[in-house]
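dumping this here before i forget
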Amino acid sequence: MNTTHDETADAASTDESGRMGPAVLASVASVALALYFYYVRGDKQRGQFIGLWPATILGLATYRRLGEIKRLLQEDAT
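structure:
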C-alpha cells in the first residue's frame, strides 16, 4: 500500500464521487455557527458548546466508515 498521508486525508474527507461528505459539510457549518454565536451574538458559552460538535460529527462519521470497511473485509474473506 503506497499511499501518502495527504492521499489518505483526502480520501477520508470525501465520498466515493470525490465530493465532500455530509459529515464534513455539517462540521464546517457547525464551526461557522459557533463563530457566529461567539463573535456576532456575543454568546460565548453557546459558541464554545457548538464548537465542540465538529469533532463529535467527524468521530461518528469515522466510526460508521470503519464499520463499512470491516463489513467489506469480512465479505471478501468469505
